[in-house]
Structures are given as C-alpha cells and as structure tokens.
Amino acid sequence: MNIAKDWIYNTNIYEVNLRQYTKQGTFNAFAQHLPRLKEMGVKTLWFMPITPISKKEMKGTMGSYYACSDYTSINPEFGCLQDFKNLVDYAHKLEFKVIIDWVANHTGWDHVWTKTHPEWYERESNGEFKRASGMDDIIELDFSNKDMRQAMIEAMKFWVRKCGIDGFRCDLAFWVELDFWVEAIPQLNELKPLFWLAEADPLQYPQYMQVFDAAYAWIWMHKTEEWYQKKLHLNELRATLDNYENVPGLRAWFTSNHDENSWNGSEYEKYGAAAKALAVHSCTWPGIPLIYSGQELPNKTRLKFFDKDVIQWKKHCELHDFYAALLHLHYNNPALNARSDLFQLHTNTDASVLSYLRKKNEHEVIVFLNLSYHAVRFELLDKWIAGNFREAFTHHQNDFSINRNFEIKAWGWTVWVKE
Q1: Which residues of the chain form CATH 2.60.40.1180?
Q2: Can you name the residues that pair with 356 across neighbouring β-strands?
Q3: Where in the chain is the domain with CATH 3.20.20.80?
C-alpha cells in the first residue's frame, strides 16, 4: 500500500444520497450539513452517482442514479460542475475525503456513447442493445472493446483532474471483467493515490482485491439478518467473521445503504433492537465502518429510489452522539486501525456475547456485544486481560485486573478503552 493512502486504515465512509438529503437536492444545499458531519466524526464522503440520468426507459419520475447518460457531465438536478468542484474544495478544507460512485458495467439507453459509439455496447440476438440482468433501464457495455475501455478510463480521470476527488466506489465491480480494473486502476493512481472501494464481497471475489483497497461485507450483512430472525447460532456468525479475516483487502461493515434501505428496509426493519449493537461492531471490528444518509437520525423509513422522498431531518439527530463516540474512537485510537491486532475473547456466556480485543502497542479496546434477546451477566475468562479501562459511552472506570464480571441488557454493548 502506498504510504500516501495510509489514511484509509482508520477512515470511515458516509454514503450521501444527494437527491433525498435536502428539499433542494443540490450540492449547495448538502454543503450546509458538512460542519455537522465533521462534528459527528465522518471522514470520507461517498456520493452516489452525480452524472446525468437517461430519459429513455427511465424508472419513476426521476430515474435511477445508476442509468448514466454522460460520464463527464453533472446531473442538473444537483447543480453544475462548478458547484460540485466547490463542494469538493469545501469538503477538503474541512478535512474530508471525497469519493464518487462509478458505474462502469452499463449505461442508460440514451447515453451519448449510444449515438457516437454504438459499437461499444453488447447486443441481443435481435441486434438491440443488451439489457442488463433484471434491469430494463440500463444496457451493457462491451469490455472486449479496447477503445471503450480507454474512453472509460479517460472519463474517470476527468473527475480526478477537474475536481480533485480522492477515489471511487465502483458499482457492481464484479460484473466488470477483472482485467479492466487491473488496467484502469494503476493508470488512475498515477494521477494521485486513490481509494478504491468495490461493490463486491471479498469472500466471493477475492481475486478483485489484488487491485481494490476495500469491499463490502455483504455476506456478513445477510448472515446477521438470518441470525436476528433466529435462523443462525452466534457461532455461525463467528465463523463468518473468521472467514473474512482470511481474505485480502479491507472490509466495509454496514447495516444499511441505498439498496438495503429502499428495497429491503431500514436497519430497524432488518435488525430491530439489535441495530445499534451491530453498528458498534461495524465501528470496532477490523475494517471500515460505513453509514448511510439519515442513520444518525435515525431514519426508520424506506426512501424511494426513483422519486423525490426527502429525509425528514430534525434539529438534533438522536444518534449523533452515538455515532460521534464510535467514529471519533475509531479514527483516533490506534487499536482500531484496520491493521491493528484482533483477539477474540471468551466469556462464560459465549452463546450470547461476542467479545473481542483490538490492540496496537499499548493501545487496547475491549468490546462486549450482547447479541441476544435477554439481559446477561457474564465473566471474562481471559485472565491475561489486565489494567484500567474507561467505558467509551458511560465513562465508567474498571480495573480488569480485579473485576471481570459484567451485566449487559438485551442487545446492549459496552466498549472499554485502556487508560
């Protein structure tokens, strides 16, 4: 890893659904939220696609972000190119990193390339553009075409050169041939060291991690849903976590994103009372925590995908302090750096409590998650844990050399930071 990219090891990601973020739905309106997000501890802003949306075969009243009509233009719904450049400059001034969503696999039906270079697309047997799997508003690009591939790379370079973005979140990265990313990513990294986040699960597509920095823990996300529905034992979740530790790259841990929220429900529909405990896990297990627009409210509704559906912000977000405590701890404590050590701990209630230690030199963070429907009293069995710790939320003190007994309410958590 290039030393200039070391920042990714203790960053977090906040996904911005610009259309639904404000009534105006613009870059300029979103910019007013940056001081609040900085205070909350957000470090990297991921913007869903900012390119214009195809009108042909458009879904809903506003269409899908992911049906692009021009790779090097701005969706007028959001403002203009200068507005976005100003937003990136302001975000950088506030010490955010900015990445944008890149949809390489497909475009909308009236993308400019369908007119200027129709040979750059795959075709159906009847000669029509090939529809993407299960989605009628998008058509597949032909990655065997070298000219298209280079044009795609040049389009990505445009946003780095023109606006100074810091990386890309690559939509359905595993739908695109790996050799394209092997060709494209080094060329783009020559402009500046960029952060590359793949929409893929490293357990399923470990080969993509030879060029991507991070990918999504999708399997974990689905397993935790099954577990909450009492379809899995906690040991099966532990086994999944073990599997992730044996694959390359960083994992992005999440309980919600634009797809999950709109199509499968908010984290409260999926996880109920366990949602916050899983958020604690996302911020303390090795990897990168990912938060979706409005989770700090918390937003408990499904946001419409193809129509205007504004997040109902309040003067004070109920979970602002909750996420602030987690995100600042994750960023500032070396024990939670993605490269620090992980030790799974043991209690006399391992069937209910997931417990682990993160450690880097003298820095230590202990996490207990009660992943059960009942309160538990338990004893930490690892006798080598010792010293004074402070609880991150309550600020209570505990000397682990003396006291190893704890009580946590159902779906509760406790995070101990070594003094």
Answers
A1: 343-418
A2: 344, 367
A3: 3-332
Instruction: State both tokens at 237.
Output: 């979740």
* pLDDT for res 1: 52
Q: What 8-state DSSP symbol labels residue 192?
A: S
3-state secondary structure of 114: helix
d(CA 360, CA 241): 20
Q: Is 389 helix (H, G, I), strand (E, B) or coil?
A: strand
DSSP state of 319: T
What is the per-residue pLDDT for 364?
98
Per-residue burial over 181-218, b if 16 or more Cβ lie within 10 Å, else e, is bebbbeebbeeebbbbbbbbbbbebeebbebbbbbbbb
β-strand pairing of 106-108 with 135-140: antiparallel
CA-closest candidate to residue 130, choices 144, 109, 103: 109
Domain 3-332: top CATH class:
alpha beta
DSSP letter at 143? Answer: T
Q: Tens digit of pLDDT for each residue in 348-382?
A: 999 999 999 999 999 999 999 999 999 999 999 99
Q: Has this prediction a pTM greater than 0.90?
A: yes
Class of domain 343-418: mainly beta
C-alpha separations of 37 from 44, 270, 296, 318, 333 in Å: 10, 25, 10, 14, 19
Q: Which two tokens stand for residue 316?
A: 């004070």
* pLDDT digits 0-9 by tens, 180-215: 999 999 999 999 999 999 999 999 999 999 999 999
